[in-house]
Amino acid sequence: MTHVSPDLLRRFDIPGPRYTSYPTANRFVEAFTAADYAQALAQRKAGRAALAQPLSLYVHLPFCESLCYFCACNKIITKHHDRAAPYLRLLAREVDLHTALLGVGQAVTQLHLGGGTPTFLSDEELRTLMAMLRRGFALAPGAEQSIEVDPRTVDGKRLEVLAGLGFNRISFGVQDFDAEVQKAVQRIQPAEQVFALMREARRVGFDSINVDLIYGLPRQTALTFARTLEQVRELRPDRIALYGYAHLPQRFKPQRRIIAIELPGAGGKLDMLSQSLAAFEDAGYDYIGMDHFALPGDALSVAKRQGRLHRNFQGYSTQPDCDLIGLGVSAIGRVGATYSQNAKTMEEYRDHIEQGRLPVVRGLALSRDDLARRAVIMALMCQGQVLFESIEVAWLLDFKSYFAGELEQLDELADQGLVVMDEAGIQVTASGWFLVRAVAMVFDRYLQAGRNRAMFSRII
What does DSSP assign to residue 21? Predict the structure, then answer.
C-alpha cells in the first residue's frame, strides 16, 4: 500500500459524491414514475434471453430499537417489534408486483439486507422474509447473500440461524470501541461483545466478515482511535469499511443531538485517517478503494487484482454489473438504463402497495451522455484506469474531443501526481487511488455545471 502525503489529503478535503451510482441520487426526479419503472421491468423480461444479465436484490428493513446520533439512514425508531409483521406483508405484495412484470423465478446472484437494523426482525420473521424472496426469485447456487448486523441484537445462536438461512457474508456495525465516543453517539456496545460474536461468526463459517468503522465522531482523538484500530487488528475481520463521519445536521435530524464542539477538527480527522491507512497496511490488508480494505485472500481483494471490481449502491462488489431491484421503503434500484427510488415514508409506501401500485416515486432515465460518463466514472472508481478506445467503441464517440474540457482539468491532477495520461488513456496513480473520488468528479457533468458540492460528504 502506498502512503499518501498529509498535504495531498488536506488539499483534497472537499465535498464530493461517493459514486455508488452516476448520475447520483440527488439527480433523481419525480417526473420518473412507477409507470416508467414498470416499463423498464417489462423491457428486462422481453430481452431476458439475449440479455443474460444477473439480478441483484436489496431489501430495506428500516426498524431500529434505538437512535444512533451519527446515523444518516432512512430508519424508524421503535421498540415495538410487532411492527415488523405488517411490513413483511407489504414487502410480499411488492415482490408480487415485481414478479407480475418479470415473471417468477428470475435468477438472483446477490442479495443484501440493509437498514435500519435487519436483525430487528425475529428469527421466524427472517425465515418468512427469505421464504417470500425464494418464492418470487431463484437464488442461484453460490449467490452472495449478505446482511448488516447490529452486534447488540445477535448472539451465537442467531448467527447460526442466519447461516442456516443462506447468509454467507455479514457486516458488524462497530464504529468505535471507545466508551466515551459510544456515549456521545448513543451506541453502547462493549468490545468484549463484538469479540465474542466474531469468534462465533468464525465458528459458524461465514465466507466473509466485515467491520464498519467511523472516524471523525465526537470525543474521538488520534489516541483513542489508535486503541480502536489495535482492537480491530486483533479482531482481524476479512473486510473493513472505514468511513469519515459527515456532520450534516441540516439534512439529518439525529445529528442535531451531536455536540458540535466535541467533534474533532479537520486536522484530527486527517490524523485518524493517516494512522488508519498505516495500521491496516501493517496488518496486511489490501486497500480496495473508497474507504474499503480486505485481506489478500478475500474475494474483494482477488477481484481488485484481477480487474473485476464493480460498484453498486452497497459499495464495491465482486458481482458483475447487474440490474438491482430495491424492495422496501426508500429502497433504490437500477434496471436497464434507469434508476428508481421507493417512497421514503412508511405511510406513503403503504399507500402505494395497498392500492396495488409499485411504490416508486422518483428516478431517472439515463441519457446517452449519462451512460457514457457512467462508464468512465465506474472505470476510474473500479479499475483505476480508462482506455479511450473502449469508451469510443462502446459509445461511438471521439474521447479526446467529447471530453476535451475534462482532460484539461485532469492536467492539473496529473501535475499533483493523481493520474498519468498518455495517448491510450488515463491511469490513476497509487497515490491518486486514495483520492479517486476527486478524479471521478471531473467527469460529473451535473457537479461541474451546478457546483452543488456542499450537499455531499467530504472526501476525507
Answer: S
Amino acid at 295: L
For residues 155 and 180, the answer to whether their CB atoms sit within 8 Å is no
List the beta bridge partners of residue 341. Answer: 332, 362
Q: Contact 413/442 with Cβ under 8 angstroms?
A: yes
142, 196, 410, 411 from 206: Cα distances, Å: 13, 15, 42, 45
pLDDT-based confidence at residue 300 (cuts at 50, 70, 90) = very high
Closest CA to 179 of 235, 237, 232, 219: 219
Whether residue 114 contacts residue 241, with contact meaning beta carbons closer than 8 Å, is answered with no
**Which residue in the block uniquely carries the three cell numbers 463521519?**
245
Q: Residue 190 and residue 195: Cα distance in Å, rounded?
A: 9
Q: How many residues does the chain have?
A: 460
Residue type at position 286: D
Query: What percentage of the chain carries pLDDT values higher than 70?
Result: 95
pLDDT of amino acid 455:
56
DSSP label at residue 294: E
The predicted pLDDT at position 456 comes to 60
SS3 161: helix
Decide if 330 contacts 63 (C-beta within 8 A): no
Model confidence at 48, pLDDT cuts 50, 70, 90, reads low
Residue 197's alpha-carbon distances to 115, 187, 335, in angstroms, are 20, 17, 37
H/E element, 296: none
The confidence score (pLDDT) of residue 401 equals: 97
| CB-CB contact of 159 with 200 (8 Å) | yes
Upstream peptide bond of 62 is cis (omega within 30 degrees of 0): no
Domains identified in the chain and CATH numbers: 1-23+368-460 (1.10.10.920), 25-325 (3.80.30.20)
Q: Which residue has the cell 473493513?
A: 240
Helices (H), 217-345: 222-235, 266-282, 299-305
Question: Average of pLDDT values for 284-296?
Answer: 91
Cα–Cα dist 447/187, whole Å: 35
